[in-house]
Amino acid sequence: MSYLLSLIVPVFNGSDYIARAVENLSRIHAISNRIEIIVVDDGSTDGTDDIVRKTMPQTERFKLIVEPKNDGPGTARNTGIRNATGEYIWCVDADDIVRHEKIEAILSSLDRDHADVMVAGSRAIGSTPDSPERFSVISNGPRNSLLSGEDYYEKNYIQCFFWKFIIKREILIENKIMFAEKLFMEDVEILPRIMMFTKRLLISDIVAYDYILRPSSLTASMNPTVSTFRMTSMLNVREQLARTRQHPRCGRRIAAAIDARIRLLDAAIMQAYACHPLEAGMVRPVLARMKDAGLFPFRHVNRAGGMATVARYGLMAAINLSPIRLRRLIQWFYVRYYASLIRRAA
């Protein structure tokens, strides 16, 4: 049986919140028999899959797929897409909230507007039950009218949260668009590839998604394994964006938006290299890739004054070699420098 909407929910080691997620998904499941829900456990080791089995509705419209090992959200989303039968797919995060009271309005809009992509309205809220709404995640463009993917991406290339997008499955399947696997920032990489093939995009005013704000983990960001993975992922994303820019279907405005996105990514790469420790033996390979990408010396800073450039890169090298107290002091100064890079790159 085929459905109008397939809701795909990847999860990894989500035992602290997956029961609440399944409770909410069960409400959505009960609203319409035109929805299927696919939870993809990405190799969890904390019993997440057992919690889902015990709490999920036992129907063919609510499925659990368990991956043998953890390969990241891109792989889990790909598994969900391959197993989906809905006309549209909606990949959401297990620790956020799809507002079940808005689902009927979403389905009606999909029936009525026949969009290739719907951009759902969303809001960001705090992580505690009594947290107020912080802000709405607003897309630039006319509400409730159709535009092209090129029109949308030109004005919204920074907003790449994939949970905003409800996408016709045939666009992904027919054009062989899948997520890059084992990658951080996979949303940034895939979005322009989808927009190239999107003729009818609807920016909806239906606020159907709550993005839960959580404190970032300084401990995780200072872990050399984590920071090396993020650093190499950003370099991989940069290379993929450059390849996408050369695609025959990449229009002039999407290409210009990709260029702007790469400039922002370049600044983030420099900040990550300067402020986060890399694994032993990875500093030289990372610098070599940065040099191949034209980031060494950094092309988005004023090159006037050779000694300033030498001092800047000496500072970055010192950060990846210095004791922790000195590193923190240098980072405090460098974060302020990074802010100027972002302004200049944008």
What is the CATH H-level superfamily of the largest domain?
Spore Coat Polysaccharide Biosynthesis Protein SpsA, Chain A
Query: What form results from the Cα inertia axes?
Result: globular
Main beta-sheet annotation:
10 strands, mixed
CATH class of the largest domain: Alpha Beta
The poorly predicted ranges are 298-310
**How far is it from the N-terminal to the C-terminal residue, by CA?**
47 Å
Domain count: 2
Protein name: Glycosyltransferase family 2 protein
InterPro entries: Glyco_trans_2-like, Nucleotide-diphossugar_trans
Domain Glycosyltransferase 2-like: 6-138
Pfam family, one: Glycos_transf_2
Short description:
This protein has 13 helices and ten strands.
